[in-house]
Amino acid sequence: MEDNITLDADQLRARACLLGLLDRHGRPMKRHRGSYLHGRPGRGKTMLMDDFFAGITSNRKRRFHFHNFFAQLHTAAHESGAIDKAIDNLLGHAELVCFDEFHVHDIGDAMLIARMLDALFARHIVLVVTSNYPPEQLLPNPLFHDRFLPTIARIRAHLDVVSVDGPLDYRTRAAHSGMGFASGCYRIDDAREAGTAEVVVAGAREIHADAIDGSAITFDFAALCGTATAASDYVELAHRFRRWTLRNVPPLREAPPDWAMRFVNLVDVLYDADLELTLEARTALSDLVADVPAVPDLARTASRLSELRQPDPSCSASCVPT
Q1: How far apart are CA 155 and CA 138, in angstroms?
Q2: What is the dihedral of CA 203, 205, 206, 210, to 10 degrees?
């Protein structure tokens, strides 16, 4: 961890918990309880996990963003026909697995996640998880929550649950690096007519793009988030395009909930891949995410978007894709 970073009390406690998973040689201790770090967005959970992961001397370690892992798990399970084989294919001989942004909102996903966790625990793999939710708030839908309680109990039985929820959202204070996600821009722009100049294929799906120029791609919000796209599509496209522009983004309270949820997933994928995002919205960021009903993880999205350069005279020219 960089010397100039001062950790708050929650972060110090979480770091001590993570270091307790290692032996004196810096290797994961076999059959050790794992760690489940939870807290609001921007509290340093991913920073702590990534610093911990980088310091491990063993090469039998794997780190995944949860969207990315889940997309790979679906594909591997379909190809192999069995969840255990799929996990073996993805993890190999890993002794430590780290999941960033662990979450459960859909009952279908919940059942697959339950089987995945059972397989990991049965293998005695040391597991480290970051999440915006304590275990008891996973799968919050009251229609299905009771069905996930046995899995929550197993999480509690196998992982030490640690709150990383200090008073400050550090993303709001981060200096822009000029690279990656934070090199993008959030600007207010009047709605423009959507174009369909290009078709890009993700998996078996055709998605209409406004423009493709080398490693840069431009989408209209309705064309990308208003059609039946999935996080796995965004993961695939993120491997092919390094610079993204999303136009005509309305206040999310005016969009259908499934459109808003796809937007949340898109920002997650681009943020984790550290890809440049320019967002052309019809309103200020504070209004974009205000009063949106029934869309999980929106606070995390707002926190991440706050890292983008906000509209000002210097932004209007520098943020236009070339």
Answers
A1: 11
A2: -80
What residues pair up with 127 in beta bridges, in sequence order?
Answer: 97
Spatial CA neighbour of 18 closest among 111, 128, 95? 128
Residue 312, burial from CB neighbour count under 10 angstroms (0-12, 13-18, 19+): exposed
d(CA 258, CA 296): 11
Q: What tens digit of pLDDT does each residue of 266-315 get?
A: 999 999 888 999 999 999 999 999 999 878 888 889 999 999 988 654 44
Q: What angle do CA 133, 286, 243 make, to 5 degrees?
A: 80
Q: Using CA atoms, how far apart are residues 106 and 78, in angstroms rounded to an integer?
A: 19
Residue 314, number of CB atoms within 10 A of its CB: 10
Other CB atoms within a 10 A radius of the CB of residue 48 amount to: 25
What parts of the chain have a pLDDT lower than 70?
Answer: 1-5, 171-179, 191-197, 311-322
Pair of tokens at residue 50: 């990534």
| Category of 176 on φ-ψ map: left (φ > 0), alpha (ψ -120 to 50) or beta | beta
